[in-house]
# Entry
Amino acid sequence: MIHLPLEINKALVDMKISTFTPVQEKAIPVILEGKNLIALSETGSGKTLAFILPLLGRLIGVPKRPTKILIITPTKELSEQILVVAKKCARHTNIISTSLYGGKSFSEQERELKKGIHLIVACPGRLKDHIDKATIDLSGIETVVLDEADQLMDMGFLPHIRTALEATKNRKQTLLFSATMSDEVKILTEEFLTDAILVEFEANKAKAIVTEAFCPITEELRYPFIRFLLKHYKIKACIIFTRTKEEARSLNVLFKEDNYKSAVLEGDMTTHQRKKALGGLKEKTISIMVATDIAARGLDIPHVTHIINLNPPLNAESYIHRLGRTARHDKGGMAITIFMPDEKAHLEKILEDQGKIFKLTKFKEFNYQLRIEKRNLRMIKYKSPGSDQDEYENDFKNDFKDDF
# Structure
């Protein structure tokens, strides 16, 4: 039985949350006991509430100085989403929380920190800036949360994490949440969480309630085929993933020209532009968000029914996280991966890594023999996964550069 303060329970009632997910049921009691924790669970399993609920309960009636809770997360989108959850859960309390990431005014963050904050959600780069400039006091931190630890490691943040953990050496508790236990995450756990309790729930597998389809197509038919899918499934809310910013922008231009309600989300956008794009999908003023892998983790938009991969992602882990953007909160969802002939072997390897059998999906309603006159041909700018793989990987990493 999980016992939370009345103020937190009232917020759960407001949010119409009456049951806990398996990871929440296992993790919350461990956190309430003050123990270190490593929680491995699939994307969309409710990891954010698993640490937010018990930690907020600990802050009720506590002075806002010094800061007690530090949550470190890889991207500004995730930090903002965690902050929104924290504020919703703390609505019946006086708990003050904030987020720190690049793209926001450093001086404004400094002034906010001086006023006193109970809980901070931070991206590693901006957190290190504040530590280096002594504009943040972490001496009173009692609990540090490393959220999406596999992505933190993938993005090369281990030195930043070490700096943050050194600055919070008075902490009593360290919590690590991740979808996978990669070799890099193992390094982190062996260094800082040797005495942690491990909670694991089918990590590194796509959710069973996501229906998957794999559709071969030629390059010139990619855009007509996507339009067919939108109509065929009567899609009202979807995320279309691309490998690169160039592809995302190109596809979004085509949607705009055809009067679709769409927006793009990629790494070169400002914080305001990203919030506007995400807000449009959340508030249902747009139905299509074209995004790079910057949107593949952490985004929780329950009414997204479909994920469309314009092409196979970099690896199995990216594929799993993309799929996690649908079928949220135990609702069903569908993921459709489009691929061209030279991408087949790459896609087969992704599925093989998950123990899945590759099975083609074709639609009798779609005219695969469609001939488009050259003057009317509308193409999505495309980069193959072969010779320019290094450029693709660099694009993937560059999508996050504004978060550092």
Observations:
- The radius of gyration is 22 Å.
